Structure formats: C-alpha cells, structure tokens
Amino acid sequence: MTVRCGSCGRDSEWPHPEVGCGSCGTVVLIPVHPPEEQRAGPADGADPGGATPPPPATPGRPGARTGAGAGADAGAGAGAAGRTPVPRPAFRPVTIRTARDAVATAALYLRWLGFQDVRRPDGLPIPSAAVDLRAPGVVAQVDPTTTPAGLRAVECVWLNGLTASATSVYFSLAGYTEDARSRADDLGIPLFVMDLTGMPQPVNDPADELVGTGA
Fold first, then answer.
1. The pTM is what?
2. What pLDDT digit, counting tens, does each position of 94-128 carry?
3. d(Cα 145, Cα 93) in Å, to the nearest integer?
4. Which tens digit of pLDDT belongs to each residue from 120-170?
5. Contact 60, 137 (CB under 8 A)
6. DSSP state for residue 15 in the 8-state scheme
7. Cα–Cα distance between 106 and 112 in angstroms, integer?
8. CA–CA separation, 190 vs 155, rounded Å?
9. Which of 69, 60, 171, 63 is nearest to 112 (CA)?
10. Is the pLDDT of residue 58 over 90?
11. Selection from 137, 90, 94 nearest residue 117 by Cα
C-alpha cells in the first residue's frame, strides 16, 4: 500500500501492517490512512505539514525500549498492566538435590504464581539439558545444569512462548550470562534463579512484575 513518510513527505510502497494469531492463524490488517486523506487538509489540532501526529506514549517500566524491544515487552507481558496484586500465601520451597527436584520446584512456583495445570509436554525422562513446562498462558524452561543459561536459550523460550501466545519464563540453577540477561530485558522475559534451598528469585524487572501481579 502507498504511505507517506512523515519526515520527508514522499509517498512510497510499504507492506500493509498485520498481526496474526498463533493459535488459529487468523490475520488482522491494521487500518492505515492513505495519503489522499492526509492531503485533504489538516484537521483541528493536526500538524500543518500533513503528517499524522504520533499516538501518545504509553507509560511503561523504567528503561523500556521502543521499536522491536518494546513490542516484545508488550507481547510477553500482555495483560499485566492494570492488574492488582493477588494476595498469596508464602511459597514453600523444596530442597533441590537433583535435576528432577529443580523441575518440580519450578512447577510448584508456577502454580504458586497462579498458573493452573502445569505439566511437562511429554513423558520422557528428565535430561541434563533444559526441560519444558507448559500451562495455559505460560511456557517455561527449567535449566538444572551447572552452566549459566545463554543467549540462545533465552531466545528459544521466547520463540516457544510467541508460538503458543503465552508468557515465556525461564528458571536456571546456575544463573545467566550477561548477554542472556540483556536479551531477556529487551524481550520482556521473566528470569528466575534457583538456589539449592528451592527458592526461586527474580533477577530482572519482568520477573518482579510477574511475582507482583501473578498469572
């Protein structure tokens, strides 16, 4: 479709913006005003140059990025804004001695946050690599190894959540690399680290928000 640049005023062809549902595949086209309507004359309060004024900024967490990073934040934390914290009893940790204990602790913690029917998507034995946990509205990955989770692991759980139209969450026993934490902040992925006492601790702002608002 033809769209006029708000900076230089040149008309050019651009792909029509659209969004798709990860569950049913429905595609929704976002309405865009064509240049003919912009040339008809400025409306009351509009910019005399003919460019459509940008929408008002939406308040977000301090340090939130614009563009792709902001879109990822919005997708990962959809519905969190405006919700009041739900009172919950204190979480009762389970001592972690094995990889299975780490996965069980993460599942208990997700239930404590309010996610129901938390389960593994398959019945295979727990491997040494990261393990998936699924529930309606959430996709979690649990890394029970002694190696900090890296950038690729964080991006993988984000893609899994995007495909399932769900919140992505990561639990790690050994923490995260610096680039993994930075990428998680960009994408709005809650990161938790677990110690051997079995108490998950939030390590970034999206994790703090998830603890505060719950599922």
1. 0.59
2. 899 998 899 999 999 999 999 998 988 765 555 44
3. 19
4. 876 555 544 577 899 999 999 999 998 999 999 999 999 999 999 999 999
5. no
6. P
7. 10
8. 12
9. 171
10. no
11. 137
- DSSP state at residue 119: B
- Tokens linked to 148: 């900090």
Region of 68 on the Ramachandran plot (φ > 0 left; ψ -120 to 50 alpha; else beta): alpha
Tokens of 99: 């990889």
Residue 133, amino acid = L
Count of all residues that appear for the chain in the document:
215
DSSP 120-176: -SS-PPP-SS-EEEEETTEEEEEE-SSS-B-HHHHHHHHHHHHHTTSEEEEEESS-B
Q: What is the spatial distance between Cα 38 and Cα 50, in angstroms, rounded to a whole number?
A: 6
Cα atoms found within 13 Å of the Cα of residue 173, Cβ hemisphere only: 25
